[in-house]
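Section 3.1: Structural characterization of target chains.
Under the original work plan, the team committed to producing a structural model for every single-chain target entering the pipeline before any wet-lab resources were allocated. The record below documents one such target. The sequence was received from the expression subgroup and is listed exactly as submitted; it comprises 73 residues.
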Amino acid sequence: MQSYASFIELANVCAQHAHFTQDREVARELWRMALEYQRKAAALDSGKLPDIGRPPSLANGRANGPRKGAVVN
């Protein structure tokens, strides 16, 4: 079984990559995965959704850089 911290880490990784991909479909799928992991983390924490930032802007086919508070490696 995954832990709360593991789900948050997975959600943040997916969210971060969704912001940097150049492919709209990949960004959408990564964001969907981030939301799924966010919900799984919330289920382990009395329903409180952890902050994973804003969804990527896909207007130009690319996200607008990292989300607020993102740690870039």
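The chain has a mean pLDDT of 85.
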